UniProtKB/TrEMBL annotation:
<feature type="transmembrane region" description="Helical">
    <location>
        <begin position="206"/>
        <end position="223"/>
    </location>
</feature>
<keyword id="KW-0813">Transport</keyword>
<keyword id="KW-1133">Transmembrane helix</keyword>
<feature type="transmembrane region" description="Helical">
    <location>
        <begin position="43"/>
        <end position="63"/>
    </location>
</feature>
<feature type="transmembrane region" description="Helical">
    <location>
        <begin position="137"/>
        <end position="157"/>
    </location>
</feature>
<keyword id="KW-1003">Cell membrane</keyword>
<feature type="transmembrane region" description="Helical">
    <location>
        <begin position="97"/>
        <end position="116"/>
    </location>
</feature>
<keyword id="KW-0812">Transmembrane</keyword>
<feature type="transmembrane region" description="Helical">
    <location>
        <begin position="271"/>
        <end position="291"/>
    </location>
</feature>
<dbReference type="InterPro" id="IPR024989">
    <property type="entry name" value="MFS_assoc_dom"/>
</dbReference>
<feature type="transmembrane region" description="Helical">
    <location>
        <begin position="75"/>
        <end position="91"/>
    </location>
</feature>
<feature type="transmembrane region" description="Helical">
    <location>
        <begin position="360"/>
        <end position="382"/>
    </location>
</feature>
<keyword id="KW-0472">Membrane</keyword>
<dbReference type="Pfam" id="PF12832">
    <property type="entry name" value="MFS_1_like"/>
</dbReference>
<dbReference type="InterPro" id="IPR036259">
    <property type="entry name" value="MFS_trans_sf"/>
</dbReference>
<protein>
    <submittedName>
        <fullName>3-phenylpropionic acid transporter</fullName>
    </submittedName>
</protein>
<feature type="transmembrane region" description="Helical">
    <location>
        <begin position="163"/>
        <end position="181"/>
    </location>
</feature>
């Protein structure tokens, strides 16, 4: 009976990831184009996105603690989908401070979605005796559909009308969130907010993992936020932009399934290292091979870079987080890698793109990914030493 209930819930969670992915893909990659259309340069774009992200960072651990303490997963996912959908039309404003206000308000609610949905999905997948990757791939597929559809849309219709499909799909996501059931088993929350945070911040390996994740996530904003601008700088057409985003997102589907198998065979740390090396290769090509067709097809490495990283990272956080701090653990990961890293990445990549074009922006990304690879290599060494020490104690 429990397994049947879990499989039914799993279908709903996959539907949530799918439609939420479409919402992200249809608007997020093209937001910078809308800002440019409204007269903002790349530096102002970086400021808008960075300040909005900063506010989201402050809200993220609060959301995690609220959800863990009061079991409010469904409510958090509902408002996280609905509020940004209702505000998206105001991004068409040409007034800088209005756009900044909308970005901040949307961020305060949308930051709850990813870490809380991931914690819920990991738990649901385990109850249904499957892997988290079988859920997350639906988000990637949805993102691919949204990004490709938006690319076709923009080839014929102005970017100022892109808010309408984004709003409709966002409301649909909120309606799906309403159908999600509460967890089948209750978990007693035994810690204060401060104690919950200290549990993670006292773990030096977790902190090293966050450093590596921060560097990769900051690097990724050069693609997520600025690829459309950088691609057009080297002569890439609008409809090819959608194809590039579609290839990147679709590459996540097999890569995320492969990542789950790699984690079992190689371990989480080695999978993270492979992801960092894939980031280095991908951004090196984008930095120094300025051919639009190559820029499109190199996005096939998005799966081996982001896909490997994200599955291994979420699994790593779920593994080290106590049962009563699952949402908090994912929220800290989201705060650092989806919040602080995105804020810093948006700000500095905007400056780098403005100062030196795609070559400088992506070149710095190669360096950052290389340092991240070093962090994960150290984690591998530390894990090997720990395992060897345990074996010695057993003997």
């Amino acid at each position: 009976m429990i397994a049947s209930h879990s499989r039914h819930t799993l279908r709903k969670v996959r539907g949530y990831y799918l439609i939420n992915g479409v919402a992200g893909g249809i608007f997020g990659p093209y937001l910078s184009l809308l800002f440019i259309h409204n007269g903002f340069n790349s530096t102002k774009i970086g400021v808008i996105l960075s300040v909005a992200t900063l506010m989201g960072i402050l809200a993220q651990p609060v959301w995690g603690q609220i959800v863990d303490r009061f079991q409010m997963t469904r409510s958090a996912l509902l408002v996280g989908s609905l509020i940004p959908a209702l505000l998206v039309a105001f991004y068409n404003s040409t007034w800088f401070y209005m756009v900044l206000f909308i970005g901040v308000t949307s961020s305060l609610f949308s930051v709850a979605q990813t870490p809380i949905a991931d914690a819920y999905a990991v738990r649901t997948a385990r109850e249904a005796q499957t892997s988290y990757s079988t859920v997350r791939i639906f988000g990637s597929f949805g993102y691919a559909v949204g990004a490709y559809t938006a690319g076709l849309f923009l080839a014929h219709i102005s970017v100022v009308f892109l808010w309408l499909p984004r709003a409709i799909i966002g409301v649909t996501t909120a309606l799906i969130a309403l159908t999600l059931p509460r967890p089948t088993t209750a978990i007693e929350f035994k810690r204060s907010a401060l104690t919950g945070m200290q549990h993670f911040l006292a773990n030096r390996r977790f902190l090293l993992f966050l450093v590596g994740g921060f560097l990769l996530s900051a690097t990724l904003t050069s693609y997520d936020t600025y690829f459309a601008l950088a691609f057009h700088d080297i002569g890439g057409p609008f409809d090819w932009t959608g194809i590039a985003f579609m290839i990147a997102s679709l590459s996540n589907i097999p890569s995320m399934l492969i990542a789950s198998k790699l984690i079992v065979r190689l371990g989480r740390e080695k999978t993270l290292l492979l992801a960092a090396l894939a980031f280095c290769t991908r951004f090196a090509v984008m930095a120094w091979v300025k051919i639009p067709l190559v820029d499109v097809f190199i996005q096939v490495l998005h799966g081996a870079s982001f896909g490997f990283f994200y599955i291994a990272a979420v699994d790593y956080v779920a593994y080290i987080s106590p049962s009563d701090l699952q949402a908090t653990g994912q929220s800290i990961f989201g705060m650092v890698c989806g919040g602080i890293a995105v804020m810093v990445g948006n700000l500095f990549n905007g400056i780098l793109l403005h100062a030196g074009g795609p070559s400088l922006m992506y070149g710095v990304g190669v360096l950052a990914a290389g340092i991240a690879a070093c962090c994960f290599f150290v984690l591998i060494v530390l894990n090997h030493r720990k395992n060897r020490q345990i074996l010695q104690e057993l003997h």
